[in-house]
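Moderator note: this is an archived Q&A kept for reference. The question asked for a predicted structure of one protein chain; the sequence and the answer are reproduced below.
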Amino acid sequence: MSASEFDGRDNGGGSMRKRIIDGDDAGLPAESDAGRLNLREIATVEVTSEDERFPIETVFAGNEGPGWRAAQPGKQIIRIIFDEPTAVRRIRLRFDEPEMERTQEFTLSWCTAAGSCKEIVRQSWNFSRAATAEIEDYRVNLEGVAVLELAIQPDISRKDGLATLSSWLVWGG
């Protein structure tokens, strides 16, 4: 993404800031590293299964790896377990499925150190030839987060799809 300034005048006589964005990023908030948590340093990850060619660690680095893929069909759970309770302000998930048409459902939840858990969102998405990526960006105001949990039902109709996750980024504050 490149940025440029617009020095022309609008009807109010002031100047306007503008940015030229890539077409693929249109409509998405800027992905600043400011406040992004380095989960590799402050958390442990649990996962129900993992294809060794698509390890879970790659989803926490942004778009730098192949992403994660389950080793078996069916519901999968990924948990981020923080070393210390943490404030969370933003959660961004990206799922990619270029190969198989399927309807996925996921649930994102959080838990306190005392064990109280709450659902943040439950979302369904239809992957198709025309829609191969799902990006979800949530602004939240969570204090004392001990665990973030992502439960993925990869194919609610056929039950034979493999869960995938390309990116899971978390910002604190």
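Archived answer notes: DSSP finds one helix and ten strands in the chain.
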